[in-house]
Amino acid sequence: IMQEAYDMLSCLPWSGNIHGFDEMEPLYTLATYASHQWLATTHENQILDLLRRDLLLQGSKVEIEGMAFFTTLRKAYDCRDTGQYSESRAFAWIRGIGTALVMGERDGLGTMVNTGGDHWVAIALDFQRSVIWYGDSFGHRPVEEVTQVLDWWTFHHTGDKFIYRTLKITAQKDGYSCGLLGPNALGHFHRPDTYPLIDVAKADAERVRVMLKVAQRHLDQATVSKSMS
């Protein structure tokens, strides 16, 4: 995998931005994947977008949402008593997701949520069974800053109180792997045969593998853009 990484990186200029994703981040941010640095919002969005595309290609109707989902949900929760959630255009897209889940147009929703400013947890919502699957690679129980928001939103759309269950996730042994293990847990939850849980001893290699996927998406998009110009 390391030789593959060297070969890929030798093809990349280190100036300019990463193409193929919603956020235009500098190419040099790819190097974070090949380090022991904590994965930031940008990286989580990239990893979740890769998962979203993979699941779509497999015919899945699961909604995989990036970091903006819970951030917007928290804003809606903060003004829950004002009627803004039902009326504001700023919340129209998450209202639409809620409706799609209730109507069965989507089979579920998966996302990552930041807790305490320095930790990522995985969330999978099952509207059919009224279950919130909560995956914390440190094994911690669901925290109130997350549950109060999810409880409000799921009840708003369904009138039901959802129960919490533990999402299977690889146990974290360091201070930086939560951003890798969480999305892997979401993939495993929805497609266990395709996404086995990561062996924690191979976490570094998995980070490099993700970097290669992001770099390949960039190269593919750059090739498409060049051919169209």
TrEMBL record:
<dbReference type="GO" id="GO:0019783">
    <property type="term" value="F:ubiquitin-like protein peptidase activity"/>
</dbReference>
<dbReference type="InterPro" id="IPR003653">
    <property type="entry name" value="Peptidase_C48_C"/>
</dbReference>
<feature type="domain" description="Ubiquitin-like protease family profile">
    <location>
        <begin position="1"/>
        <end position="189"/>
    </location>
</feature>
<dbReference type="GO" id="GO:0006508">
    <property type="term" value="P:proteolysis"/>
</dbReference>
<keyword id="KW-0645">Protease</keyword>
<comment type="similarity">
    <text>Belongs to the peptidase C48 family.</text>
</comment>
<keyword id="KW-0378">Hydrolase</keyword>
<dbReference type="InterPro" id="IPR038765">
    <property type="entry name" value="Papain-like_cys_pep_sf"/>
</dbReference>
<dbReference type="GO" id="GO:0008234">
    <property type="term" value="F:cysteine-type peptidase activity"/>
</dbReference>
<protein>
    <recommendedName>
        <fullName>Ubiquitin-like protease family profile domain-containing protein</fullName>
    </recommendedName>
</protein>
